[in-house]
Amino acid sequence: MLVCKNTAYQHSEDDHDEDVLKQGFEYKEPRYLLYDVNPGEGFNLRRDVYMRIAVLVQNLNKDGPWILVLPPWSRLYHWRSRDVGSQERIPWSTFFDLTSLTEFVPVIEFHEFLELSKEPIIEEVYYLQNYKEGWDKWEEKMDKRPCLVNPYEWDRESQRWRGWFFGYSDEVEALKMECISVLGHAGFLKPFLLANTTARSVMIDRAETVLHDRYGDAVFWQVRRSMRFSKKLREIGDAYRAEFLDSIDEQDKTVLTDSWTDMKTNHGDALGGPYLAVHLRRADFVRVREKDVPSIKHAAKQLKELARKHNLKKIFVATDAPLGEYEELKGHIGKEFDVFRFEPTKEVKQMYKDGGVAIIDQWICAHARLFVGTRESTFSFRIQDEREILGFDPEMTFNRLCNEKDKKCEQPTRWLIQY
């Protein structure tokens, strides 16, 4: 069993003597925590893993200066556009407001980390995995074990480890790599990082293996509130709302403060724009979650009923459905309602990629009078989060489309904001 006792932070003998970084520490010689996620995970699950690791870094900073290195974004399952240029090595600043992130925990981009390093080296990599034998009871534990799967290769010539490293596989190497079987929360990694390594840069791979320390508490919501989208993406979404959906923050009561730390809302403070927004997840969900996903015809029926109930004449659709299915949906909805879908310009797609277009969809959905999502979709979950932050009545947020065969149709769990 690995040593997991709490110890005071100790500088390693070969720590570099760098200037104080801009993240607000009054320290020199910070340590850097990097992380990565299973390549098959989607954009919104990756956002959730960021939250787990950000809380870990916040806790590490109680014992010494650590900086979280943000993993560049690369092509994901839903990022399939061929006319947007490369979807590799995308920095977080493309999608998120880094100043806002830094108000919770100090962060830098991966390319900034490389610029600060004397060599393109990550000193230690720990690849997290589940226990081969499974587990009978829940108990937090971690052990160094043989790798069940090892995505890294040992280069005999350089005497270093080579791997994907966020698309920098030809440039970045690691000095040490070990596999660790772990069962526990993200915070359980803290004593290991303090007691078992003095490396200046440490990477946790497969970080989704560890869980949230406390899901839904005030700290959870602090890091979630800090994850504001980039100002430019918000502006694009706001312009679309104003032009097509008669939606403006002042009249919708959805004005953001300059800093998330100064914003505290009550349920019902936000009114939202005069439109219904729906996240209609299709693609693989039609096959793997057949019992949860309605037919296009039944989805249209539910949307019309909800729009009539709330006296809304406009319906905004965020969906991964092909154009044919979207047109079918519009046909079933009919001319009683105006149906909209965000169509990015070529410039927006090339600059902000598929991930940015998805964020604009989420931002527009977050400002609707009424939101309806898809069951078990992280895309819908994140919209619900945004609406909690803005101060919507939960009745107008935690709704989902139902399969026509689902007689009970349980609505989403209400994870309400905590301050």
List the helices and strands and how they pair.
Elements: E1 31-35, H1 43-60, E2 66-70, H2 98-102, E3 107-109, H3 110-116, E4 121-129, E5 141-144, E6 153-155, E7 160-162, E8 173-183, H4 189-195, E9 201-205, H5 218-226, H6 231-244, H7 249-252, E10 273-280, H8 285-288, H9 296-309, E11 314-319, H10 323-333, E12 338-340, H11 346-366, E13 368-372, H12 378-390
Parallel strand pairs: 1-2, 1-9, 2-3, 4-8, 4-9, 10-11, 10-13, 11-12
Antiparallel strand pairs: 5-8, 6-7
Structure write-up:
- The protein has 419 residues and is an alpha/beta fold.
- It has 2 domains: 31-218, Rossmann fold, CATH 3.40.50; 229-396, Rossmann fold, CATH 3.40.50.
- The protein has helices at 43-60, 98-102, 110-116, 189-195, 218-226, 231-244, 249-252, 285-288, 296-309, 323-333, 346-366, 378-390; strands at residues 31-35, 66-70, 107-109, 121-129, 141-144, 153-155, 160-162, 173-183, 201-205, 273-280, 314-319, 338-340, 368-372.
- The chain has a 7-stranded mixed β-sheet with strand order 3-2-1-9-4-8-5.
- Helix 1 (43-60) packs across helix 5 (218-226), helix 6 (231-244) crosses helix 11 and helix 11 packs across helix 12 (378-390).
- It is globular and about 70 Å long.
- The model is unreliable at 3-27 (pLDDT under 50).
